[in-house]
């Protein structure tokens, strides 16, 4: 018996080849003398054509009591056919039912009707059987692969840091508490403190692509309580520009490499454009001026809210830029670990993509005393962060980096409208299962 082949590999096999395929029965059509079973295996389709005459009758009877979406295995011969969906059909001499599906299905696979998003998430395993939904995760995987491959070229080391932690780095409001053998602990909001500690280790350039947890109370299309944070940190930088250059190069190369994959794998898809480089660097102050010329007056010291970000996004898009940096935010609205510039501003930045924040980062305060001062100015107790501060007392190089919302980037890249479309099993205030 031949080994199991995938539908896409069968497509190029010559007439008469003997093959075994396995997949879900998407459609059953019985035309009296002849029956068609459309089998989907995750790579494409194979039409199995059985005539009721001779041995075909046994095959039809073996498949007579299965419902759509049951899993079958079919062994037979390839026959070229203009009429079949993939240009060929399989004429079987043996079939096995491997797993029967119940009826009715909780949601359709091939139906044109739109299913409610909650129903789709409740039945994600079926939702992903739809080619366009499964494609999101194939593309996401390719994107991550390309990202890792460029980071490796740039001598970054992939690391994993703890997700059960004793202190948060991004403010108390979104911390999830955990009972850790009777002690107070939290789920990590970001790897911030650990990636910075590693800057004193000689690994020099590290990155991590891992879950981060935030008790997000607001229900938006950009936030979930568990997301994948793509963090990087680099030692021995000369200034913020070194960090911006690496992130810009990484984005441009990853977008471009993923475009190649998309054109090959999904020829009919609209491939998202590679953002134009160099990404403009707009200072926070320039952004306030841009907004004021649009009739929106923000006070110096206010953070840019979602509407302000969108307005800037529209202006930049008109200029031909989808990605750009907003830099030098007021020190007062950035976390304690960001280095102050001296004029009330800070060496901080956000990476924006079509008016939505994808990443934030900056040059870090690596001088122990100043770091302690900054913590105190933010009403944090340095004593609680001793494990972190210690790394700044025995030789800490200047460093900087970023944290990028990976799911958010994929959702924006594929124009999905809701971050949850790019997360297999999203976690938010109302969702804890599946
Ligand atoms: P920040 O808090 O801005 O920075 O987070 C970094 C990026 O993570 C994404 N993000 C989220 N994505 C989905 N759901 C959420 N609830 C959510 N919260 C944040 C965003 C955001 O830009 N330690 C710093 C980074 C650094 O300075 O290196 C940090 O965590 O895309």
From TrEMBL:
InterPro entries: Aa-tRNA-synt_II, aa-tRNA-synth_II, aa-tRNA-synth_II/BPL/LPL, Asp-tRNA_synthase_2, Asp/Asn-tRNA-synth_IIb, NA-bd_OB-fold, NA-bd_OB_tRNA. Residues 137-434 form the Aminoacyl-transfer RNA synthetases class-II family profile domain. Keywords: Aminoacyl-tRNA synthetase, ATP-binding, Cytoplasm, Ligase, Magnesium, Metal-binding, Nucleotide-binding, Protein biosynthesis. SUPFAM superfamilies: Class II aaRS and biotin synthetases (SSF55681), Nucleic acid-binding proteins (SSF50249). Its cofactor is Mg(2+). CDD domains: AsxRS_core. ATP binds at residues 214-216, 357, 405-408. Mg(2+) 2 binds at residues 357, 360. The keyword Cytoplasm applies. One of its GO terms (molecular function) is aspartate-tRNA ligase activity. Mg(2+) 3 binds at residue 357. GO terms for cellular component: aminoacyl-tRNA synthetase multienzyme complex; cytosol. It catalyses: tRNA(Asp) + L-aspartate + ATP = L-aspartyl-tRNA(Asp) + AMP + diphosphate. L-aspartate binds at residues 170, 214, 360, 364. The keyword Ribonucleoprotein does not apply. GO terms for biological process: aspartyl-tRNA aminoacylation. Pfam families: tRNA-synt_2, tRNA_anti-codon. Binds 3 Mg(2+) cations per subunit. The strongest magnesium site (Mg1) is bound to the beta- and gamma-phosphates of ATP and four water molecules complete its coordination sphere. Belongs to the class-II aminoacyl-tRNA synthetase family. Type 2 subfamily. Catalyzes the attachment of L-aspartate to tRNA(Asp) in a two-step reaction: L-aspartate is first activated by ATP to form Asp-AMP and then transferred to the acceptor end of tRNA(Asp). PANTHER family: ASPARTATE--TRNA LIGASE, CYTOPLASMIC (PTHR43450:SF1), ASPARTYL-TRNA SYNTHETASE (PTHR43450). This is Aspartate--tRNA ligase. The lineage of its organism: Archaea, Methanobacteriati, Thermoplasmatota, Thermoplasmata, Candidatus Sysuiplasmatales. The gene is aspS.
């Amino acid at each position: 018996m031949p080994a199991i082949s995938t539908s896409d590999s069968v497509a190029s096999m010559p007439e008469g080849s003997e093959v075994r395929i396995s997949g879900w029965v998407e459609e059953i059509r019985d035309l009296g003398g002849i029956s068609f079973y459309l089998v989907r295996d995750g790579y494409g389709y194979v039409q199995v054509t059985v005539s009721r005459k001779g041995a075909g009758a046994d095959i039809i009877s073996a498949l007579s009591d299965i419902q759509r979406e049951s899993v079958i295995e079919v062994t037979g011969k390839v026959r070229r056919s203009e009429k079949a969906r993939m240009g060929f059909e399989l004429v079987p001499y043996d079939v096995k039912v491997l797993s029967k599906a119940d009826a009715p299905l909780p949601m359709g696979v091939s139906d044109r009707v739109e299913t409610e998003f909650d129903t789709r998430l409740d039945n994600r395993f079926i939702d992903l059987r739809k080619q366009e939904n499964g494609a999101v995760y194939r593309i996401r995987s390719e994107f991550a692969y390309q990202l890792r491959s460029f980071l490796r070229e740039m001598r970054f080391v992939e690391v994993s840091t703890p997700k059960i932690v004793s202190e948060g780095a991004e403010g108390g409001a979104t911390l999830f508490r955990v009972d850790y053998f009777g002690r107070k602990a939290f789920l990590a909001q970001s790897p911030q403190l650990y990636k910075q500690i590693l800057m004193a280790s000689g690994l020099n350039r590290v990155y991590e692509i891992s879950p981060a947890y935030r008790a997000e109370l607001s229900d938006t299309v950009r936030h979930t309580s568990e997301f994948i944070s793509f963090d990087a940190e680099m030692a021995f930088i000369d200034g913020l520009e070194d960090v911006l250059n690496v992130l810009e190069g990484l984005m441009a190369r990853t977008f471009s490499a993923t475009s190649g994959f998309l054109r090959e794998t999904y020829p009919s898809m609209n491939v998202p454009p590679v953002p134009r480089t160099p990404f403009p660097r707009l200072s926070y102050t320039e952004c306030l001026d841009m907004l004021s010329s649009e009739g929106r007056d923000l006070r110096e010291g206010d953070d840019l809210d979602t509407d302000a970000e969108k307005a800037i996004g529209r202006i930049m898009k008109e200029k031909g830029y989808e990605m750009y940096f907003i830099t030098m935010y007021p020190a007062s609205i950035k976390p304690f670990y960001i280095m102050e510039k001296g004029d009330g501003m800070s060496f901080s930045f956000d990476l924006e993509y079509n008016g939505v924040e994808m990443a934030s980062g900056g040059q870090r305060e690596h001088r122990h005393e100043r770091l302690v001062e900054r913590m105190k100015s933010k009403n944090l107790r340095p004593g609680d962060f001793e494990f972190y501060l210690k790394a700044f007392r025995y030789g800490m190089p200047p460093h900087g980096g970023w944290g990028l919302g990976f799911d958010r980037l994929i959702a924006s890249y594929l124009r999905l409208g809701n971050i949850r479309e790019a997360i297999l099993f999203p976690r938010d205030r109302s969702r804890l299962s599946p």
